[in-house]
Amino acid sequence: MVNDLKRKRGTDVAPQTKRLHQQQHDAGDEAEAYSSAAESDASMGSASDHEANGDDWHGLDGDQDTKQDQTNDHTGHSGSHIVKPPTGEELRKIKDATDLYRSTFFKLQIDALLPNVRPKYNHAQPLEAFLLALHKLLMNMPSVSPQHPLHASRTLSQKGVAVPYVRPLPTEDTNWKVSFEKPSEIVLAGSWATKTAVKAKDGAKYEVDVAVEMPPALFQEKDYMNARVFQKRAYYLAVVASAIAENAGLPCELFYESTSGDPRRTTLVLRSKCDGSPTDFSKLNAQIRIVPYIGQSPIPLQRLSPARSNIKTAAQEDESREDPTPLYNTTFMLMTTPKSHLLSIHHLKQSVPAFVDALALLRVWANQRGYGVGSRMCVRGFEGKGMWWASILDLVVNGEEPPPVSLGKGGTKRKPLGKGLSSYQLFKAALDFLARHNFHEEGVFVKAKDGHRFPPGSYSSHEAVFVDSTSSVNLLADVPISSLDLLRYDAQATLEALDHSSISEDPFQTVFLKEHRDMFARFDIVVRVDLSSAEMRKASAHSVADHGSVYNALMTTLVSTLRRGLGNRAKAIAVLHPTSDIRPLSQAQPANPSVVHIGIILDSEHAFRLVDHGPPAEETESERTKQFREFWGEKAELRRFKDGSIVESVVWEVKNSDERAHIPSMIVRHLLKRHFSIGGDAVQTWQSQYDGLLRVPQSISSTYQTTGAAVGFKAALTAFDTLVKHIKALDDAFPLAVLNVSPACPALRYTDVFVPVAVPVPARSALPKSASYLPAMEIIIEFEKSARWPDDLRAIQKIKLAFFERLATVLMGAVKGLHASVVLGERPERLEIQDEAALDIVTQEGWAFRARIWHDREATLLDRIINDQPHLPKALRRTASGEDARERQAALQAHEVYTRRFIHAPRHHRAIAALCHRFAAFAGTVRITKRWFASHWLLRGHVSEEAVELLCAYVFLRTSAPALGETAASQATSAPSSKERGFAQVVEFLKDWDWTTGLSVPLDNADQASAAAPALRQRLLATLHGLCPNAVVARRITALAKATWECLKGMETGASSVKRIFHHPVDHYDFVVELKTALSPRYYQQLDADPSVWTSKNKYANAVDKDSSPSIMPGFDPVSMLYDDLKFVYTDTVLLFYDPLGGNRIGAVWQPALRTPRPFRVLGGFSSTPVPKIEAKAKEKEKGLVIVNERAIFAEIQRIGSTLTERVVPRSA
Fold it and tell me: Residue ranges of region Disordered (predicted)?
């Protein structure tokens, strides 16, 4: 359909598409290229429907009828057009696009994506010329007579070519020989031959596999033993490399490459030189791999069953007991498969029309998530697994063999889905298989023509089993089961995005274009491990020989150990490192990365439990108990529990809830230290660095402990509940009964940046001035309804004052040590009809509350002032002027405060508190995100705390189903389980979010696609009214988020740190107001607070400062008050920024228009000064121009700040 539409548009479309592809290819960023192409093609498709009036619909096969239509136009009336309606076949194609591809637009996006991820096969003439020359060279190579392997390697080393022998390396006592003969056959294999190649990540080149069949005469029947066949293959490859290097007719660069770091899978890589010759194929971004394989040989294939042992080690003393070598045998079998796999893919391509496109979609999806090759962190085990992705589609199309009873729990046979599915349907069916199948419990045997070669029981030594349709090899033999757990998790998350997205949302970006390899947004815990000093606790020579190298054996043991230790605490564990790279021919063995990252996705239901149970005491001498003690070491102990049971157990000691979140990391550290001797600085996590951002300095914390302060969110909630009981117990002292007391404060919903602390009132004098801030927790009191309330807004405010006075008197008389005082006003401006009064309550324990009274009649009275003629249409209402207009404006402001304070705040509090209970990581994510906004001088002044909480709520709820009746297992798959991952996802969202589109957050447990979504969006906008960022601040947030994201990516390589993310640059401000830190009661909360500011300077350390004020003022922050005053005074002059968490500087940016000369006028709204004569122009009419008077404003700011301001520093200073 799309191709026909493009033909209708004319001949200009193809060149445009070609130029677009070339520009994207040169950009080097696959994700951006995919996105640009998709958007461009989609926009071209939409443009065709809105062209000039001269273009008409000519049907999907427009080319066939264009001339006829033009003839009709000429023979018809002048200026008339005959519009041809779509035919039934065309309508059927449109309907199929909707049914088979989710939507027509989704199909257009797929059609735009696929050409940009495939090589330009029509530009492959230089490659074909090179391949012909290479074929001629290989078929004319001379034979090499049999000789000792060491003598043969010395001969080649003189030519600069090392033979990549595998371990155990040949010695002088070796009694077998190596030789060379020209290939029996040369086959172009792999994805290039079948035209199923897909662009890899990080600029990796396309692979052109040249399978070279080694003659059977080179091998003997016993060569399958002790890696002898791999030694002969290595020599064969080295001879080929030497011959190509010596041939001047093939200008190319030669390298060795070992797939997955396995020396037994070494190949020869040929890269073209950019010399402009007829064989220069460098523009294709491709490289040739020469892969020696075995076609027919005297080696009996039945000896290569996964259950057989083909390695004899010196430590294997018991000849009767042979441990199988499944990986060794699988690697051997892989040498026999290039041709059979080529024929298998070719058959699928011919029989299934959508196979090629479906495979491309699956490979793109996998590459975006690190299941492929790349220089960034990729998931271990998926290098060189192109055949496996194709076999998944083979399984979907053709089904599988009956499930083997001997493997796991077994299951039902998967029935074939047929060959007529679309590419999107095949792709989604493959994801459904990956999301549902548990490889640890059940093996997969793809339907084979003649059944499978080896019985199912022979694969019992493999962790995961997936045997392809050729019955040759288990394609998942070397893939860690933990990596498959991550693959399953990603498939589930993708299906959620496809199934739960509304029609208005486009999941294409998330599924195919978004980069998912960023560790900190993908994993709950990231551990950086230096393996340079790693040693296996129980090193097995047999295991090393089976894996091919010590490194691979170490990695396999490490992953399995961590998976066993974490158990159901983790949903998935993945080892991340760059894939294997090329090496020069002089280097025989591959180099392995010494530093790897371990990514862990937690199951929040089990991840943070304190105790792991083992065998009961009755099995003290059993093998199970011995294994448990051996595994956990000194951590294992016999304990008795409350239910009377006595079991072996491991207990993780923690002091607070923050440390409890570290339990999975503690387990990883313990296991790495015990089993691999990796400890200290060799193991790095970032959780403690994030925790430090949410803690006060150690000296202040010690003061809290000395004074007996109550600490914690639960302690604050307990204090709130106690206060509510006291208030409700005093109903007899009031004319109206108290119906409800509602919290509306971050400290009472677990989202305050710092943990609430209550220092007893008598001990507050021990706190320094720089740490004397006492936050007031907002609560709302609702009395029963009564007709005795007055109908005048000013009188209502007076009645509230009377209630507060009565409540303060009664409370102080009933509760010992409680202080209560009535306070008025929070802003520089005051309105008599606006709710201004509050009651500050300070308990004896040191908790401070600020109570307000909610009277619903206020809203009605304010509405009457705003609209005193509701019965008339808007066009007929009289226009308010003078005093009425001012009163209406005051009523609008008071109504906004009333709605935000008494309607939205309690609802918002309940919704956010529910999310904190629903998601264990939500509260921590909000706290870190608030700290980030505050550190960059945006919180409170430009972005409210409620806005930050809603942003975090969106990140947690964007793919989740309704919470009504859901279980932990049915929660959103992609919801973070750690605050570090939650914060990274918030930053990831902010860097790409278009602020102009708004945001709908389903806080009422409603689906985003339901009718409630518009109302929820209105509620969000009302909550943020007056506090949401303007365009300047929104762009500022986006820029900061992008810079933060780059820092997070830099942390992967150690080039950045957590604290750097929260350091704020000030170079871009026009001027900065520096404040005196000693006078800020919140200075101790600053990120880089200087302890010397609050250190006692008296002669005696325990002496009380005489200047310390005995009065207690909850919520008193002079710096915040100064900021509000300056913002009110200079609202039209400068844009002000500051850190509300202990900031000692205020940044300012001039309004751009004020710095350009303008004519003077009375009440201009800013302090101005005449333009200097040098700058004034000569024309008389342009005299009298003024600009902003910067020096006068600086002086005014210092006067307003009085003793708080230190100095004002302009940018030029």
Answer: 1-89
